[in-house]
Amino acid sequence: NPGEVSEVYYYDQIQGRWVNLGGKVSGNTITVEVNHFTKFALLTKVAQETTLNDIAGHWAEQNINQLVNFGATNGYPDGSFMPNNRITRAEFAAVLVKAFKLTKVMGQTFTDTESHWAEDYIGAAAENGVVKGYDTGAFGPDDLITREQMAVMVVQAAKLSEAAEVLPYDDSDHISPWAKEAVAIASGNGIMKGYPDNTIQPRGNATRAEAVTI
């Protein structure tokens, strides 16, 4: 019915919970690709508009509302979103997993994510090739994410490959070698933009508004 959202879930018997697989709705049919046998269910809910009390007039207002109503991110209990606050690696991984409807199958974890609130999201992102840990085997879930780290994650999640030939930013030489291609791809596809002073600030910490927009 109008105003309702239908999605396919499967039951994870180990974790004892339903996991969202999403699905494409066409008329009276919903289609989803699966790679294992288990219990499946179609769950339908009424989509609810969320009103946030601190984003009116913000440059990312439309993007924030879109992602919140899509269910990929959320505000705080007091009704705020705090768009200019910095975002952590765990929080951004969770947004990507929800936005791209990635699922966790094998149970991959890092040395510092066990019992973390985002453990399942980080595991799903890792299994789908979206995130990697540090050389120490840790993920650093509560570390503030840098813009170049964010570029790498979103390029992997969206499976993009076409890169810009030249990065036009004054601080392009500050981009870490491992992130250069991803920043070029994100920039070339219009996913990541520079600042008015023609910098990309690759090692700067991204805000919640920037993360949601990307």
- Elements, N to C (H/E): EEEEEHHHHHH
Uncertain spans: none
The average pLDDT is 88
Taking all Cα atoms into account, the compactness measure Rg is: 18 Å
User: What form results from the Cα inertia axes?
Assistant: globular
Major sheet size, sense and barrel closure: 3 strands, antiparallel
Number of strands: 5
Q: Percentage of helical residues? A: 25-40%
Strand content: 5-15%
Structural class: alpha+beta
Report what the structure shows.
This protein is of the alpha+beta class and 214 residues long. It contains six helices and five strands; from the N terminus they run βββββαααααα. The protein has helices at 61-70, 89-100, 119-127, 147-158, 180-188, 208-213; strands at 4-12, 17-22, 24-26, 29-31, 40-46. The chain has a three-stranded antiparallel β-sheet with strand order 2-1-5, with no helix packed on it. A two-stranded antiparallel sheet has the order 3-4. β3 (24-26) and β4 (29-31) form a beta hairpin. α2 (89-100) runs parallel beside α4 (147-158) and α4 packs across α5 (180-188). The chain is globular.
Features:
214 residues; alpha+beta; three-stranded antiparallel sheet; 13% strand
